[in-house]
Amino acid sequence: MIYNIKQDHARFRAIVKGKIKQDLKKYVTHGEMIGRKGKDLVTIPVPQIEIPRFRFSDKEQGGLGQGQGKVGDPIGQGDPQQGQRQVGDQPGNHTLDVDLSLQELAEILGEQLELPKIQPRGHKTLKSKIEKYTGIANEGPNSLRHFKRTFRETLRRQIASGVYNPDRPVIIPIKKDMRYRSWKTDIRHENNAVIIYMMDVSGSMGDEQKEIVRTEAFWIDTWLRSQYKGIDTRYIIHDATAREVDEDTFFKTRESGGTLISSAYKLCEKIIETDYAPSDWNIYPFHFSDGDNWSGEDTRLCLDLLVKKLLHVCNVFCYGQVESRYGSGQFFKDLKEHFGNNHESVILSKIENKEGILQSIKDFLGKGK
Question: Using an 8 Å Cβ cutoff, are 136 and 149 in contact?
Fold first, then answer.
C-alpha cells in the first residue's frame, strides 16, 4: 500500500511539473510565485488538476448496499426533481496550491529554456572541512564511546578466558575492551557565488519597470542557487549617487534625481574588492536601467571601469535594459557599440515588457558561465 501511495504521489508530482512547464511563461510574466516564496519552497497555484476523492451526498435517501435489490435494478437514481439547478455555460475555475522546491523549479526553468549547467570560472572555490566517522579506534573520549562494539569486545574476551557464565551473564568492560568512533577530515572544494544587483531608481524608472526587475531577479536567483553550493546576494540602487540597501528597499525605492551609472559600478567594485576575493568567488553583477545616463563623459567612465576593473574579476557582466517611456535607451547602444553582440563576458538584453522576461533570462544564463 505504501509503495502504491509513493507511486501515485510521484505520478502526481510529474503531472504538476508538466503543467508548470507548459504554463511557465504565464507564471514568469505574472510573477505569481514571488509572494509565495519561503526559504526552500514556493507555493504555486496550478489550475485544473482534480484530486480524486470521495464525495458524500447530504440527502437523506437510500443508496448502494441499502435494502433489497434485484438483478437489473438501476442504481444511483433519486428523485429527478430534487436538487435541480440552472445549467451554466461557463467552465469552473479550479486551482490547486502545490508546494515545489526551488531546486525543482530550477530544473523546470533549465529544461524549458535549455539552459546549460554553469561551468565555474577557473578555480573559484572555497574549502570546507567535513568530518566523517569512518572507523573504530582503541582510544578516544567517552563522548565517542561505541557501546555496541565495546560490549562485543568484552563478551569476546570473557568467553575466550572462560569466565563468561551464560546462566548469570555479567558483562563488565575493562580498559582494553573500550572502543571509540574514529573520524577523518575531508577537504571539499565548494563552488560559491555572489550576485550583485544594481538598479537605476531615478524618476524615469517606474513601478512597472521595478516589477519586471523583481520578477527576473527571482528566476535568476533560483537558477544560480541550483548551480552553486553557496550564494550571497547584494543590492545597489543608484540615481546620481549609489548606495547599498537590503532586498526590500531595493525594489521599493524611487528617487527623482538624475542618473550617474558610474556611481553604481564604483560601489560594485568596492564591494568585490572588500568582501569577495576573485580567487574564491564566482561573481555575477546584474545591472538594470532604462538606458539614461547623465552624460557621455560618465558613460566613458563606465566603460573604463568595466574594461579595467569589473570584467577581470566577474564571470559575466549582465546589463538588462527595461524599456520606459521616459528612457532614451542610449546606454544599451553605447555598450553594444563598444562590446558588440557576442562579447565573451558582457551580456546585453532588452526587456520591452513582462512578455520579454523569459527571453532575457535565457540571454543572461544561456551561455553557462
Answer: yes
